[in-house]
Amino acid sequence: MPAQQKKIIFCIAGVLSFACALGTAAAIGTQLWVKGTILCKTGALLVNATGQELEKFIGEIQYGLFYGERVRQCGLGGRPFQFSFFPDLLKIIPASIHVSVVLFCTVLIVFALVGAGFFMFNAFGSPYETLHGPVGLYLWSFIACCCGCLIMILFSSEVKIHHLSEKIANFKEGSFTFKTHSEQFANSFWIVLVCSLVQFLNALLIRFAGFEFPFSKPKDSGRTTGAVDLMY
Question: What residue ranges are annotated as transmembrane (predicted)?
Answer without folding.
Answer: 97-123, 135-155, 189-209
